[in-house]
Amino acid sequence: MSTDWQPSFEATSAYLFVHFTGHEQAETDEQLYFALSRDGLHWHDLRAQGDPVLTWSEGEGGVRDPYIVRGPDGLFHIIATDLSVYHRGGWQEGRTTVNGSTGLVIWDSPDLAHWGRPRLVDVAQAIPKAGMAWAPEACWDADREQWIVFWATAAADSAEDPAAADLANELGDGINMYYATSADLITFSRPVKWIDRSNGIIDTTMLKAPDGWWYRASKDDQITLERTRNPYAVTHELVRTDDDQAWSYLSNLTDIFGQGRYSSRYLEGPELFLYNDADAAGPDGRAMPFGLICDQFLEGRGYLPFRSADLSSRQQQDWTLVNDMDFGRLTKRHGSIMPITESEYRILKRTLTR
């Protein structure tokens, strides 16, 4: 992978959106597409439908739910679900959760335009009767100098191997969130059961805010919001607590907005991100630096975007629905948004547009 790229210390001033598209009607729907924006509101697709930027033909033959992240060394990584509903001939009445891949697909790049060969890393095999590893994300923990990589897996209620009993499902629905740690996104620790709830729990997104708190949003029966000082804390049911080393429940989108259509019946794939400083002001000029987008999967309407002044707030005045976001021509399914520099914007547009 040769390139003349050199590390940059520019401030970020634009955005990259990595996503898959469509409704599993073609092989190219479940591959990776890129879109660019200068303001986080107006998006320009680099390729047309059917012409993805990155493709995956091994494993299940398709890739979904990509998450892109900048590492502490300046390198970039995409981590994604190894799944092709198209090649499976449909969702198979839930069989995709029990006989699918337990690996994650990972790409690396020095500059966002030149990507190395993707690798499939099995992270969930140790989980009792695991048959999926979906919607992964990776967050760098600077304090411990390691990645926290988390994903959803459906687990059995018991383990044939007593050594795996701590990974089995305990509460209700068998889909739980797990995490593993890694120094290099090549070798991973044994998984840890991170969230186990009576309702199915999936599609967790997490970021560390400037205030030092870790925030996460998840799809269970709502789009729920929590925070902690210790992202490794394991949880069961939602609780409110003053213990900053535990995850404490904040609120959910339905309660914040008083809108039932913001529940998980209609929304999935929540994705948190930070706006660049120049774009942090909300519609009324108030600082609203946090973005949260959710996929309107039930109605196939693409993403619904929100902004927040304070992710810990339960007050509607600290949140707003973004009505003027233009996501571009392509229907964007479960993906991620990352701030980029002007130089990175230019190399992406010059190298990958066609």
Major sheet summary line: 4 strands, antiparallel
> How do the strands of the widest beta sheet line up side by side?
3-2-1-20
Mean pLDDT, as a whole number? 94
Question: What's the total helix number?
Answer: 3
Helical coverage, percent range = under 10%
Can you tell me the overall shape?
globular
Proportion of strand residues: 35-45%
String of helices and strands: EEEEEHEEEEEEEEEEHEEEEEH
The value of Rg in angstroms is 19 Å
In angstroms, what separates the terminal alpha carbons? 21 Å
pLDDT < 50 runs, ≥5 residues: 1-6
* E-strand count: 20
Q: Which structural class should the secondary elements be placed in?
A: mainly beta
GO molecular function: hydrolase activity
Keywords: Hydrolase
Protein name: Glycoside hydrolase family 43 protein
Q: What's this entry about, in short?
A:
By secondary structure, the chain is mainly beta. The protein contains three helices and 20 strands.
Structure description:
This protein has about 350 residues and is mainly beta. A four-stranded antiparallel beta sheet has the order 3-2-1-20. A four-stranded antiparallel beta sheet has the order 4-5-6-7, with no helix packed on it. It has a four-stranded antiparallel beta sheet with strand order 8-9-10-11, with no helix packed on it. Helix content is about 5%, strand content about 35%. The two termini are about 20 Å apart. The protein is built from three helices and 20 strands. The N terminus is likely disordered.
